[in-house]
Amino acid sequence: MRTLIAGSGIIAGLIIQALFLYAVPFALLSDKKFAAAVGESMRMVWRSPAESFLLVLFPFILTLPMMFLSFKAEMIALRLSPDIMIHIYLASEVMKIISSFLITAGATILFIRGSGDPAD
């Protein structure tokens, strides 16, 4: 039951993240107010839900192994070596940077492609 609740919370979080995915590109590249950008973001997700959800899901999956390692940090430190926690932390931060880049770059590319820009 606890796994079902945690899984549904993760899915709800991914859906909410997908709904706000294009808000920053709309606000920055279209000079819209943030409230209008959120509305446009939700409309864009409605037009391409699979792409939007995959764009959020793939970076989440990339960070999942580091998240599981951080849940077991005490056991890893006691059984292996406390020094390995520094490496796990650094790897986790690198994965977060890569994940943020993938989300931002992917959202911007889909925004430009979806805005009907003739330059693409």
Low-pLDDT runs: 116-120
Mean pLDDT comes to 81
- Would you count the extended β strands for me? 0
Class by alpha and beta content: mainly alpha
Number of helices, where a helix is a run of at least 4 consecutive DSSP H or I residues: 6
Number of domains: 1
What is the 3D form?
A: elongated
| N-to-C series of helices and strands | HHHHHH
Largest sheet: none
What is the helix fraction of residues, given as a range?
A: over 70%
Rg, Å, rounded: 18 Å
Oligomer: single chain
- Our estimate of the beta-strand percent is under 5%
End-to-end distance: 48 Å
Question: Topology of this protein?
Answer:
Elements: H1 2-19, H2 23-29, H3 34-47, H4 49-71, H5 73-79, H6 84-114
Overview of this structure, please?
This protein has 120 residues and is an all-alpha fold. It has one domain (2-114). Helices cover 83% and strands 0% of the residues. It contains six helices and no strands. It has helices at 2-19, 23-29, 34-47, 49-71, 73-79, 84-114. Helix 2 crosses helix 3 (34-47) and helix 3 crosses helix 4. The protein is elongated, with a radius of gyration of 18 Å. It starts with a helix and ends in a 6-residue tail after the last helix. The model is unreliable at 116-120 (pLDDT under 50).
